[in-house]
Amino acid sequence: MESELDRAERDTPERATLFVDNIGGIDETEVSFQPGATVLSGRNATNRTSLLQAIMAALGSDQVSLKADAEEGRAELELGDETYRRTLQRRNGTIVTDGEPYLDDPELADLFAFLLESNEARRAVARGDDLRELIMRPVDTDAIKAEIEQCQRRKQEIDDQLAELDELEGKLPDLEAKRTRVTDEIEELEEELEDAQAELEETNVDVDERREEQSELEAKLEELRDTRSDLERVRDRIETERESIDALEEEREEVEERLDSLSSGDESEVSRLEAEIETLQDEKAALSDEISQLQSTIQFNEQLLDEQESVLPDADGGTGGDGEPVTDQLLADSETVTCWTCGSSVARDQIETTIEQLRTARQERLEERSGISAELDEKRETLSTINENRTEYRQTQRRLDSVDDEIERRRERIEASTADREELTDEVDDLEATIDDLEADDYSGVLDQHKEVNQLEFKLERKERERDDLDDRMASIEERLDERETLEARRDDITDELTDLRTRIDQIEGDAVEAFNEHMENLLEVLEYGNLDRIWIDRTTREVREGRRKVSRSSFDLKIVRSTDDGAAYEDTIDHLSESEREVTGLVFALAGYLVHDVYETVPFMLLDSLEAIDSERIAMLVEYFESYVPYLVVALLDEDAQAVEVDHGVITEIDSASAAQ
């Protein structure tokens, strides 16, 4: 991760400047930040949180409030040569944003970079939220599942091709044996033909008186030889076609059996599933929007309560800056607060009750969304199975039609060849009869020798064609086998891709747990929390029901070990942690998400606020620790806490002013 952060730091501009109008409690200001840590130092109610909100607004977050007495607000951030702008307007009691912020989608930053008091990741530990769900929320698991299905289909196609190659390779030994046998037969025929031709040449017949008859006889013999050769070729062609038809009919039986085992699919069932999936997707999207809106509303109201807390008395003798008795101020602030949307006064306990109701509603929506996701996965799986079955059915039907067409074509060729065979047979009979009429007793032996030579030449020619055909088939198979290495390499690549996809979610979970445990261990050692020995996340797998299925799902269980004064260790719970210990644990969990999802590559800022529960010395250590992982770290601290920070950092003490001190 450090190498990635080094690259992020090299790309970080040397200076960032922020311009703010009417955000939070700020009227107008301009501040600049150097890379590294920047401390916003001041007392409560000095607009430090408002400045952090302004940074969030320019970066793209919607978790921002408009100044109560303003109708419009603006946040503008200059980073290097780029400028990012965001405007806020009050319309019909709601805040509408516009402009070109740094981020198109602020989800990662809202979860793991903008660590204000109400930050969901930071508060997840204390509230006992599902830590695994929070870490995995930015991961598009549906897209990963779709990629897995696509890779599985590609791998199956290659497996089928390799199986076909194995089948072809298995035919090679039989073809080679057959070729050897045919080659031996050719050699025998060549020897027989050579002997027959020599015997014919040695025959001495007186042909002077019947030269004309002999010439005609020899012409007829030559014609007989050619005709017989044509006849045998036709017979071979018929035999080959019949063998092909037999093989095709066997294949047809296999294809029909496969077709009977498949289904063409019910179109109405497919349409129904697609409609249900679309409806569930819409419901899930609507729930996600509602959850996001609920979370934003919860955070706004929590910030509203925090920002309008009573100002503690100072050294002016028990009165506030305007001379009003402090007790009156405290009483007023404890009873009412100013609504951020309409500017009216609202009872504090009413807002707190509303926040609790919103949290309950948000949890219900999360559970409802989880159920919809499970049902959606199940219906997608069912639809995928139906579609795959339909696709295979159509392919098998096309193959069956192709086999039927090929059988019909070959039968037509057999019919045509049969007619040719009958015609050639008649020609052979006529030629033999003519030769019988022409031959004389003196030439009967010559005729027999001619017939023998003709037959041997024909047999030899047929065997040579058979050998050439075997050579072509073997060469074709060997050429196909040359594809095996390429196919196996492609299959290995797809297998690796499948492994990566299947383990990607597991890897992210493992990295998150490892990051949390490592940084928690480091910080506990640095911060020295008395008898707190160890805090870690234990990742376990358990069976849960999703719809009608049971699936394995990871769970993040937070473990705490303390020790007694005499050194005995015992397991504790989050409820028994001090407020300081809970705050540190929540911050480390947010840091783990920040590093696992490489948020520093997405947004260069991390914001910290509301660290008062932690003592000054430990705050200083936290700032130093976090600063090493973040291009720009902006921290809101009380004056006494800011003075304890020793790491080299910038300081901003005046916020609502055009001349903020650096």
UniProtKB/TrEMBL annotation:
It comes from the Archaea. GO terms for molecular function: ATP hydrolysis activity. Residues 348-511 form a coiled coil. Residues 194-206, 246-257 have a biased composition (Acidic residues). Residues 207-216 have a biased composition (Basic and acidic residues). The keyword Coiled coil applies. Residues 194-216, 245-272 are annotated as: Disordered. GO terms for biological process: double-strand break repair. Keywords: Coiled coil. The keyword Coiled coil applies. Gene3D superfamilies: P-loop containing nucleotide triphosphate hydrolases. Belongs to the Sph1/Sph2 family. This is Kinetochore-Ndc80 complex, subunit Spc25.
